[in-house]
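Reader question, answered in our methods column.
A reader sent in the components of a multi-part assembly and asked whether the whole thing could be modeled at once rather than chain by chain. We filled in our standard form and ran it. Here is what they sent:
COMPLEX SIZE: two components
ENTRIES:
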Amino acid sequence: MKKLLIVDDSNIIRSKIARCLGKYGLEIAGMASNGQEALTQFKATRCDLVTMDLTMPHMDGIECIRALREIDAHVRILVVSALADKATAILALKEGAQGFLCKPFTESDLTEAIGELTSDDDND
Amino acid sequence: MSLHQTTTMTEAELRIFIGIVQHYFEQQTGCPAEMGTPFLGDPNVLPVFDFTGVIGISGNRRGCVYFTAPSEMLRQILVHGGESDVSRENLADLAGEISNTISGNARRAFGHEFMISVPIVVTGREQSISLPESVKAYVMPFRWREQDAALVVSVV
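And here is the structure of the entire assembly that came back:
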């Protein structure tokens, strides 16, 4: 079972993602409300997947993606953010995210995005 | 850019925010928001409901965007989304998240230099939101399941 770290400063978004992807078959290994917490939890759990908000206090999502990439070159990162402009999506992908899901999202949007993120693994 | 400049929101820009609110409620609840007629708000008498999520705007535009709604509306949105915890903390969290989503989605039209802050949530109808009098505040009232709420955009 793949392990997931959920990073978002909103408790209800963390809860929504956990409910949805728990049903999808992922193990929710950790939740963090900012980039700094995410790095601490990632080092402890070594998750396979991360959902990453961008606008967060203390350390934002882009900075956290950069830091995660230095720790683990293989972790799959799905950005889940309200920032809907193309430049932000391109920047997030350039920094090392593999997918970008814009808020607001439905459960099917989320499972589809996670499915695309893990499809390469499934084909291995 | 100074807040005293007269640059203000255009009708087309206001429609962007209206469209985002409509999309949010339609997608998240399946029940569309009924948008009222936007009006220029009196800076001293702006609408405030039980929970208000405020986003500061900087970059190519300056000012703030806030979403304000009654508890019952927020509670119903949470329940519809499958959230069983409808504590005041989660109602406040939702108000902040909606304001963040609306402002963040606006970057699709305003570009990445439309910088948004993390939300600040103000609780209580007795509170007032103080905005600079030099900046026009446009109030976009709406109803959802027979409850009134509003989005206020005060950006130059």
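What stands out: Strands of chain A lie at 3-7, 27-32, 49-52, 76-81, 99-102. Chain A is about 50% helix and 20% strand.
Send us your own complexes using the same form.
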